[in-house]
Please model this.
Amino acid sequence: MLRPLSIAFLSAFALQGCMFSPGQNLDTGRLLQDDSAESSRVELVQITPKLLAVEAATQPQGAVPVKLTDYRPESYRIGAGDLLYITVWDHPELTSPAGQQQQTDANGRLVRPDGTLFYPYIGTVRVGGRTIEDVRATISEALSAYVEEPQVDIAILRFASQRVVLNGAFVKAGQQPITTTPLTLMEAIGTAEVDSLNADLAGLTLTRDGEVFQLNLDALNTAEGTDLYNLSLKDGDRIYLPYNDRKKVYLMGEVNAPRALTFKTREMNLADALGSVGGLNQTTSNGKAVYVIRGVENLETERAKVFQLDANSPTAFILARQFQLRPQDVVYVGPAGVTRWNRLISQLVPSAGIIGTGSTVQHNLNNN
Model:
């Protein structure tokens, strides 16, 4: 009877052993040797100084497109919606027809949608598309028939005809007017205030005349000789700063705090990513099994890459700091061999109890 019971309990032990996995492990030997269709879609690459040099050489350099830097704003041209304040010295009845006690806006003259305005004695004056100096000269000449040597000055109280629009990860997104003083990109961004916690600084786009320009704010801010601060905006420009909620890397495996990390700047290196999750678990991790898994758009036509770092090497920290991660990369740290064995043993404890119970039952049966 002992033999059948032993076989039964050993069968239960083996069955339970088949039902658990002692821990995930990326088998790089299989990637190198297996000729299956699945393995042929993956390329294993060691992170070495040579690889980092090649990666650095292929990285796009931050620069403002020439089409943007070549733009030079002209003198402001009046347009529909602008509110003008026309002063005729020594003639308050022309300067402030609503009365000097009224607010300045009440004495302003609004440019109509057709680009014209009405002025006493002169009648309808076409001002749309013209500079302030041009309109001043026209009004002075027309008033000279009624006023001796008229001294005319023009100021714009409200700018409404030319504007740029900022959308996305800004605290104050919306329209900003272009005035007589040229508006630069950085001034517009400063006014809108970047949402620093949620913005993707590397993904800014500027759309001008139907063409989209990519501007990496993080890279351009640190680049020497950049023209970013001299980039003037043009009427109709649209600026979009994306959120970083889709720009993540994922830390998995034997790290102290596995989670997804969000990019806030143009890049994140492997050392920063591992440091953000408390580093490798010193008890359970395998220093030679640090992998960066990078997918592709189409596995049918491209091979995904798995980059491997030997963290036990003295140069590992230097290599990790220079290896730049990309959005959607998965950083996986494999378990040490003893870790897999310890997990195996811990999951066998219930089975050991079953065998012990079986031995007690058999002892009692023999005594009886």
The chain has a mean pLDDT of 80. The longest strand covers residues 285-294. The chain is about 30% helix and 25% strand. Residues 77-158 form a domain with the wza like fold fold (CATH 3.30.1950.10).
